[in-house]
Amino acid sequence: MGRNETEWQRCCAVADLMQWLDNILGLSAEELEWYQMVVRAIVVYAVALAYIRIAGMRSFGTSSAFDVVVTITMGAVLSRSITGHYPFFPCLITAAVLALCHRLIAFLNFKVDAVRRAAEGKPVLLFREGLFAEKNLSLHSIHRADLDRTLREKGIDDYNKVKSIWYEVDGKISVVKKDDSQ
Q1: Same domain, 56 and 104
Q2: What is the pLDDT of residue 143?
Q3: Cα angle 89-103-40, degrees, rounded to a multiple of 5
Q4: 104 with 160, same domain?
Q5: Residues 39 and 110 grouped into a single domain
Q6: Is residue 26 part of a domain?
Q7: Are residues 53 and 35 both part of a single domain?
Q8: Using one digit for the tens of pLDDT, what is the confidence trace for 66-88?
Q9: Is residue 5 part of a domain?
Q10: Higher pLDDT among residues 34 and 111, named by residue
Q11: Which site from 40, 147, 149, 169 is most exposed, i.e. has the minimal number of CB atoms within 10 Å?
Q12: pTM above 0.90?
């Protein structure tokens, strides 16, 4: 068997593989068949798991605005690849770029305080030592009833037992209790 014949066989094998991918994923189809959407969903599921590993679990473990944006955007891009409204591989590549950008910004968040503040913000003081921060409550549309509920959830029945209350960057309200010695 000559060199040209071997190269021809490789080309035919690649062409056969491309044809198989086209058929199973519906890459050139005007309308996708049900089984093509199922196969796309399985592929996208596997690829999304890999991208989550690339982006890091923080995008799904916490809920800062920075993390929510990448989660929603990646979901939107990947869903388009399943339904066939946009080309399959460019959608997967776009989602990979999003995952890599998220990973880069997360790394920069860790290293550079200014990046962290810009991407995630800072906690906001809502209450300290008996005084409500009315301006901050109003600015973030937090009612005192929201603070009351948070205290009840923490098993605290009196503001006199509270040192401070914070509105965290993930949208949760946290409570710092006074020391028992105070």
Answers
A1: yes
A2: 94
A3: 25
A4: no
A5: yes
A6: no
A7: yes
A8: 777 888 888 899 999 888 888 88
A9: no
A10: 111
A11: 149
A12: no
Based on the fold, state whether residues 58 and 136 are members of the same structural domain: no
114 plus 128 within the same structural domain: no
**Residue owning tokens 């005084």:** 131
Give the confidence band of 62 by pLDDT, cuts at 50, 70, 90: low
DSSP symbols for the chain: --HHHHHHHHHHHHHHHHHHHHHHHTTT-SS--HHHHHHHHHHHHHHHHHHHHHH-THHHH---HHHHHHHHHHHHHHHHHHHTSS-HHHHHHHHHHHHHHHHHHHHHHHH-HHHHHHHH---EEEEETTEE-HHHHHHTT--HHHHHHHHHHTT---GGGEEEEEE-TTS-EEEEEPPTT-
Asked which of 73, 102, 118 is the last residue of a domain, the reply is: 118
Same domain, yes or no, for 134 and 105?
no
* pLDDT surpassing 60 at residue 61: no
Retrieve residue 49's tokens: 């798991």
Q: Name the domain count of the chain.
A: 2
Q: Is residue 71 part of a domain?
A: yes
**How far is Cα 161 from Cα 178, in angstroms, rounded to an integer?**
6
The tens digit of pLDDT for each residue in 137-153 reads 999 999 999 999 999 99
Domain that holds residue 129: 122-177
Tokens of 65: 């605005």
CB 71, CB 59: distance < 8 Å:
yes
Encoding tokens for residue 123?
């906690």
